[in-house]
Automatic annotation (TrEMBL):
Residue ranges crossing the lipid bilayer per the database entry: 6-26, 93-115, 145-163, 175-200, 212-232, 239-258, 278-298, 310-327, 339-361, 382-399, 419-437, 457-482, 502-523
Domain of life: Bacteria
Record bears the keyword DNA-binding: no
Keyword set includes Transmembrane: yes
PANTHER family, sorted: CYTOCHROME C OXIDASE SUBUNIT 1, CYTOCHROME C OXIDASE SUBUNIT 1 HOMOLOG, BACTEROID
InterPro entries with a match to the protein in the record: Cyt_c_oxase-like_su1_dom, Cyt_c_oxase-like_su1_sf, Cyt_C_Oxase_1
Database matches in PROSITE patterns: COX1 (PS50855)
Protein name (database record): Cbb3-type cytochrome c oxidase subunit I
Keyword tags: Electron transport, Membrane, Respiratory chain, Transmembrane, Transmembrane helix, Transport
Residue ranges of every copy of the Cytochrome oxidase subunit I profile domain listed in the record: 96-550
Length: 550
């Protein structure tokens, strides 16, 4: 029995074991509705107070008045618990800033590489003088810069900031987390350089040579250790659901990356099985739990209201863990793999509707009567958009796994549009919102130009909408043309040309939004722009922080 089958069988057995543990916990009453656990993100008396550090004082006050008109009552927050939060933020500030700064750098690199590769699809003779600028290499540079450089760095920064807050304790071993970040980004830089010169391992999402990937895995290990040590030394009684999602995601990505990069183990047909086991799970067991965990914190925190059902949030976590491990096999429908493998993948892809619907119902209930606050809060706007795109991309992905749909859209640009709806419309937009919330607390400085946040949102949202709609329509028509035996293959190529141009238009808007975002981040970090005193400047004035209930 080859390693791919063993890996899949092991993951399936773990899912079954986890299912029985879940059933046991239900029988023991461990998942009864827990309002105390749902409220752990707030200090005592803080429920009812809106919170978005991206807002200036006047806008924050306007949002609070709008919330109060919607029925939210404001109370005095407990000063001791707020002080714990201040100390937690202080302990994680340096590693968080390092990870977010790296993320911004790789976002620009990946965006420019992605736009270049997009233009090449309808202008193939553009920039062909250098080998590293050919489509195969520049597209792979884009993929790795965004996957590992932008999303992974931003996710790690957010985890290191959120967990001490949620555990109400200082981050233990921050220096080790920073060393881990240095190793991860050294590996990313070396890996992208290797890809540019043509040295890769030849597996999608796993192109970085294993000799370089050792640095990335070692970096993950050095980040995980401080997280686990902080978790063990927590001060809270209840573990909020975001902690479940984020700690599990860290352990999952380390294991996935280790198995995927084992040298000399994955060969032949089973290499493709392992490739898509990793490729889909890096989205579903790394990007997704981190982003869902972020929404479960930032969205209730922003509107000053606990999640409507803590049980639904736990149900979403466990069903995600149960069903996602086998989803990647639907990319191999029609390939030389066992039929039971693809059938299992299809079944589990459809079952993924459960955690998605649970999340959507929970967020809808939490936001009921509060959606109008998105007019005021940049963080809430990004989180709501990301949550909606999670619902859309997940449902689309489940139905794309069906054989009748798969035979049309597989190997087309439609799949590329779907991937970007998840990785950008959902994950990246959530990370943007998290950064806007975190950085005033990390840098002791407010965002200098609030209107740039609005510009960033609309450029990014419009860009991904054009990108997704264009590729979805063009990809479907491409699939229909390829299935028609009476039509030459070139028909499927030429009919997609207008949609590929729309893809570049959408990509251009997204790149512009990234330039606005990173430029604004630099202005904030370098203290450019107007000096505004507000609740975000709490390190130099703790009394102001306590007074505002942050």
């Amino acid at each position: 029995m080859d390693s791919a089958i063993l890996s899949l069988l092991g993951a399936f057995l773990l899912s079954i074991i986890g299912l029985f543990v879940f059933i046991w916990s239900l029988r023991r009453g461990l998942l009864l509705e827990n309002s105390a656990a749902a409220s752990v993100i707030f200090a005592r008396g803080e429920i009812g107070r809106v919170d978005d550090p991206a807002l200036a004082d006047a806008a924050h006050d306007s949002m609070q008045r709008a919330a109060k008109e919607g029925g939210i009552e404001v109370h005095a927050a407990d000063a001791a618990e707020l002080q714990d939060r201040i100390e937690s933020d202080r302990s994680s500030a340096f590693p968080v800033f390092m990870f977010i700064a790296f993320a911004c750098f790789w976002l620009l690199v990946g965006s420019l590489a992605g736009l270049t590769s997009s233009i090449k699809l309808h202008e193939p003779d553009w920039l062909t003088q250098q080998a590293w600028l050919t489509f195969g290499r520049i597209r792979t540079v884009h993929l790795n810069a965004v996957l590992y450089g932008w999303i992974t760095n931003a996710a790690l920064g957010m985890i290191l900031w959120l967990l001490p807050r949620l555990l109400r304790t200082e981050l233990y071993g921050a220096i080790w987390a920073m060393l881990g970040g240095a190793l991860i980004n050294t590996g990313i830089a070396a890996g992208i350089g290797a890809i540019a010169v043509g040295w890769t391992d030849g597996m999608e999402y796993l192109e970085i040579p294993w000799q370089i990937a050792i640095f990335i895995f070692a970096g993950f290990a050095l980040v995980i250790l401080p997280v686990l040590f902080t978790l063990v030394n927590r001060k809270v009684e209840h573990l909020y659901v975001s902690v479940w999602y984020m700690v599990a995601a860290l352990l999952w990505i380390a294991l996935l990356f280790l198995v995927g990069k084992l040298p000399g183990v994955h060969t032949g047909v089973q290499q493709a099985t392992t490739n898509w086991w990793y490729g889909h799970n890096v989205l579903g067991l790394w990007f997704t739990p981190v982003s869902v965990g972020a929404i479960y914190y930032f969205l209730p925190k922003t509107i000053g209201r606990p999640v409507s059902s803590y049980n639904l949030s736990i149900l979403g976590f466990w069903t995600l863990a149960f069903f996602y491990g086998q989803v990647g096999g639907h990319h191999l429908i029609g390939g030389p793999v066992p039929g039971w493998l693809t059938t299992l993948s299809i079944v589990q892809s459809i079952m993924m509707v459960i955690p998605v619907i649970a999340f959507s119902i929970n967020m809808g209930g939490t936001l009921k009567g509060r959606m109008h606050l998105a007019r005021y809060s940049p963080t809430l706007r990004f989180m709501m958009f990301g949550g909606l795109m999670y619902l859309a991309s997940s449902l689309q992905g489940s139905f794309e796994a069906l054989r009748s749909v798969n035979q049309v859209v597989h190997f087309t640009h439609h799949t590329v549009g779907h991937a970007h709806l998840g990785a950008y419309g959902f994950v990246t937009m959530v990370l943007f919102g998290a950064v806007y919330f975190m950085m005033p607390r990390v840098l002791n400085w407010e965002w200098p130009y609030p209107r740039l946040i609005t510009l960033h949102f609309w450029l990014a949202a419009t860009g991904i909408a054009i990108y997704f709609v264009g590729l979805s329509i063009g990809g479907y028509l491409q699939g229909v043309a390829m299935l028609d035996a009476a039509r030459p293959f070139m028909d499927s190529v030429t009919l997609t040309a207008p949609y590929l141009k729309w893809r570049s238009v959408g990509g251009t808007l997204m790149v512009l939004s990234h330039i606005v975002f990173v430029g604004h981040f630099l202005a904030m970090a370098l203290r450019f722009g107007p000096t505004r005193a507000g609740a975000a400047l709490f390190w130099s004035n703790k009394q102001q922080e306590l007074a505002h209930g942050k």
